[in-house]
Amino acid sequence: MVLADRRWRVRTVLVGLVLASLVPGLFGAGYLLVRDYDNGLAERKKDNVAAARLLVQAVDAQLDKARVLAQMLATDDAALRGDLPALHARARELLALSGVGRNVVLTDRSGQQVLNTLREYGQPLPRHGNPDVARRVFEKGEPVISELYTGGLLGLPVLSVDVPVTIEGRIRYDLSVGLTPDNFDAVMGNAGFPPDRMLVIFDPTGTIVARSFAPERFVGHKGKAEFIARIRDTGEGVMTARTLEGIEVVSAYSRSRATGWSAGVGVPLEVLRAELRSALGMLTLFFVMFFAAGVALAAAAARLIERSMRALVEPAMALGAGVRGPVPATAIRETDEVAHAIDEAALLLATRTRALEEANTALRAREGELREAQHIARLGTWDWSRARGDVKVSEEARAMFGGGEECTFAGMRGTALPVDDWERADEALRHASGTGQGFEIQVAVIAPGGERMWADVTGRALLDAHGEVVAVMGTVQDVTERKRAQDALREAEARFREQLEREVAERTVQLTQANQALENAVRHDALTGLDNRLSANERLRAEFVRMKRGGSPYALLLLDIDCFKSINDHFGHGSGDEVLRHFALLLREGLRENDFAARFGGEEFVLILPETSVDGAMLVAEKLRGVIADARFPGPIRVTASIGVSCARRDDASEIDVVFRADQALYRAKDEGRNAVRPAA
User: Fold this and answer.
1) How many CB atoms lie within 10 A of CB 484?
2) Is residue 515 predicted with pLDDT exceeding 80?
3) Which one, 53, 153, 318, 672, has least CB within 10 Å?
4) What is the mean pLDDT of residues 232-256?
5) Domain match, 330 and 382 both
6) Are residues 133 and 231 part of one domain?
7) What pLDDT, on the 0 to 100 scale, is given for residue 86?
């Protein structure tokens, strides 16, 4: 009875190996696909929370712009003088320039509007549409952001940012900038969200102020109670809910700590699931194709390996018979190399005996050369045998230790070797014979004439087939000259290092002082004490990079002393220098702690105002212009300055764009009569 051959074929093994590799991977891929779906859903929820946070930040920015505009008007000269017609004209002008808000309203303590930019000055006006807001302004003397209410003049949903107008230490009026839901529609439009995202903005009471879907139906109404309650309780997060239209959405929300306003970003749940299913479908198709390709490639590779291995049978049989067989050409490099190795094996076996005989002859010649080299190098050998139990030394070693044929290791104790060094060598030998570990030590040697020498002693253990130490052998070499040279070199190095350290310390102090003086001269203007143009360019670059990375705005003021050449011509360059120094002093006194001032060249100066919008920069520039115009300069000299104002933009290519716009604004201020402030176009 013939038993079936149970041995595996190469093709079967390779295909099985590929399957064993791929199948667990496919199960793992399936698990990863399911987890990726869940992770993708969670990640999109996080993205929506971040989007809601950005939207509420944009809302805060819009409200802050309205507050800045209101405070500019409340501190305007016309307001402080009580010149209401001039304030009416100024308010219309700033509304047009800033593009913030719908109108400006001025209300007295009784709640009666006395000015409204929606009407010509002097026409009859109604009372304030939200008396409670006006009352809070008069009571607290602080800015107030209202909730959505119906405007007294427009009769439409509006909200206002109200600030007090203080005249001679007393709050005389409530000045408010009115905004409508249209202003926040623009905020949502500028945020760049996909069209299928449902955006909504709430005031602190949960009333809908703006909405991307069906605003005409829901603006002015309360949001869903559960959604508003969640915003009030947690401030920021995500939940699944139904919209006022009944659409199931994943809603992310965020509430501003500064204003109490909040924003929501909703994605229809079905849209979100469809996006994830599409991505997972493509991954599944890729995994199936990858599995099929792997099986096919494994089968083809198995056939190729099988043919190449069968081709090696004939030359292997010929080698066993002691003859050279044919060398087959195979498609696999390794089997081809094996075939050539089989062919070369016969030649190698024939030449190996001759090579061994020649090596023995050369070895005997080398032994003679080695003995001569040991004599020249003062290198000796020694060995210890477990069977013999003692140490034998070579002729060179005996000569080094001053002994004859009777020289033994035990007899060297206290004679050729000091006791401490002998015991150290004996301990090293015992350790090597017990553990099989080698050693290398240096010992002192007492020459026959009493001179102290030095020798390096090495040892290496020899093991039998069972790993037991049977012998220890090593070398001993006279290193006296090297030891003396090393000691002399270490002493010289120590003296040199000490001298070098002293010189380095002295030079370091001198270099540090010189660098500090050079740094101060390079980066500061010698006349005014301000930073110079080099420092200004570096600060401009740093502020631009910070704005690009984090979105932090900054403003730039370019100031030029009007008619400075005529000051030099009429009063002399000494007076001109005094004007520049006093001008720099006024700039330093008018700056905040984190502002930056520098002399940009000649009579031109630059101010960098971090975290400042165009409106805030205009306020600073106008204040500086007034301070300079009112200041008393040395001698009978009246000095004024023209100022150009610009603010960095996200689409600027570099910080040069900000400087260029400020420079253009400065030229407009010069061309339009000097002693003026002009914003960049």
Assistant:
1) 12
2) no
3) 672
4) 88
5) no
6) yes
7) 94
